[in-house]
């Protein structure tokens, strides 16, 4: 009798043991974490201090939980989403592989060439008229390194030069403004590509690049009678293919120059007619114009982003009575056009357009001065100094960009 009465107790204990076994088995099952997936890098080269953007999937939204290494050196992840990491390239990093580690899983992103901060400049001999050269200049000491011959090109034929991080190339338009001439600063090889649709009535100007390694320009089309079309386009530098961003019809044309990219607003901003700013938002493709200066007596010759990504410009103010000029470095509000003076410049200084570069990592604005000197304006200390590039008076430096 006692044997049969104990059966319910046996069954109850068996059930408890079974549940415990199931629970133990469940606790020991490994948790499968998603493997990070990365897209190929959109840039081939960068410099220490630059922000590298890595796109993909299955990143951790907490920045510290993602580890990015460049040639084995750990970089700082400044922001993270599940699909994008923003990374500051460390000062001691060297060229090499880029890897991402998430959830203990490491994946290769690609390789990156790291170059020191360099000014790229066109140099010519005004006496012998020898072929122009593309040279690299160290902004700290003015030391120069030859890169490649550019051939005999009239000064007017090069409206501006740009550095494209996607391919590690300096790029400019040919003399007919219908194609690209590209110089790889690492291999020193030169190549050319014709732009799609270019011709006698369809030409290009105002090359500009963004921080993701994309190349843009203005396509000028006068092929339709009584109208003049300007189209902001993105250029594929490999084959000259175009992607239209925005078309504008102007009977008198729209003159835009000194274009630059402003990362804070993701806009291309350039000087337009009558002292204004012309802007195109690269996310929405919307365009707008704002007043920048007061007529012909105020001119902003060069613009670029500062270390916070805001727009700064080199401005000349001319007295309408005496025609004496004063210069300033100003921060420009790209919404209102309002300007804040950062550095008043003393002396009669003139930095020609398309020779001015903003260097955020050095907190400087630099430009070419008196044809063979580098004028450096420190935005932090509000001081300026001059570095002589050469003592040869026949050498002329013009058109400048930086990596």
UniProtKB/TrEMBL annotation:
Keyword Coiled coil set for record: no
Highest taxon in the source lineage: Bacteria
InterPro entries: Ig-like_fold, Ig_E-set, IPT_dom
Ranges of residues in domain IPT/TIG: 42-107
Keyword field contains Signal: yes
Assigned keywords, A-Z: Signal
Signal peptide range: 1-20
Protein name: IPT/TIG domain-containing protein
Lineage: Bacteria, Pseudomonadati, Bacteroidota, Chitinophagia, Chitinophagales
């Amino acid at each position: 009798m006692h044997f049969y009465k104990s059966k319910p107790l046996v069954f109850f204990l068996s059930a408890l043991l079974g549940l415990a076994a199931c629970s133990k088995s469940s606790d020991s099952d490994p948790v499968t974490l998603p493997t990070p997936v990365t897209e190929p890098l959109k840039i081939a080269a960068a410099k220490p201090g630059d922000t590298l953007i890595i796109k993909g999937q299955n990143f951790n939204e907490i920045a510290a939980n993602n580890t990015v290494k460049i040639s084995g050196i750990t970089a700082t992840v400044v922001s993270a989403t599940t699909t994008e990491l923003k990374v500051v390239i460390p000062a001691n990093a060297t060229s090499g592989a880029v890897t991402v580690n998430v959830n203990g899983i490491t994946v290769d992103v690609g390789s990156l060439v790291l170059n020191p901060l360099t000014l790229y400049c066109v140099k010519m001999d005004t006496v012998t008229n020898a072929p122009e050269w593309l040279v690299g200049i160290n902004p700290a000491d003015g030391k120069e390194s030859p890169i490649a011959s550019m051939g005999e090109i009239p000064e007017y034929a090069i409206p501006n030069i740009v550095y494209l991080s996607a391919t590690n190339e300096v790029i400019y338009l040919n003399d007919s403004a219908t194609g690209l001439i590209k110089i790889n600063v690492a291999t020193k090889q030169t190549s050319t590509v014709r732009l799609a649709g270019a011709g006698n009535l369809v030409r290009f100007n105002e090359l500009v690049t963004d921080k993701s390694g994309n190349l843009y320009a203005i396509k000028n089309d006068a092929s339709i009678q009584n109208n003049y079309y300007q189209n902001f386009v993105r250029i594929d530098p490999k084959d000259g293919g175009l992607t239209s961003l925005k078309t504008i019809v102007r009977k008198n044309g729209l003159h835009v120059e000194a274009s630059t990219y402003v990362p804070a607003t993701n806009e291309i901003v350039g000087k337009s007619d009558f002292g204004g700013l012309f802007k195109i938002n690269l996310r929405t493709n919307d365009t707008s114009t704002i007043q920048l200066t007061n007529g012909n007596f105020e001119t902003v010759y060069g613009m670029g982003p500062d270390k916070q990504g805001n727009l700064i410009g080199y401005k000349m103010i001319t007295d309408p009575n005496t025609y004496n000029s004063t210069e300033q470095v100003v921060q420009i509000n790209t919404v209102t056009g309002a300007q804040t003076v950062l550095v008043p410049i003393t002396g009669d200084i003139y930095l020609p357009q398309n020779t001015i570069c903003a260097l955020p990592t050095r907190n400087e604005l630099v430009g070419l001065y008196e044809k063979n000197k580098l004028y450096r304006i420190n935005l932090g200390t509000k001081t300026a100094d001059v570095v002589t590039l050469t003592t040869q008076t026949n050498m002329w430096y013009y058109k400048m960009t930086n990596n």
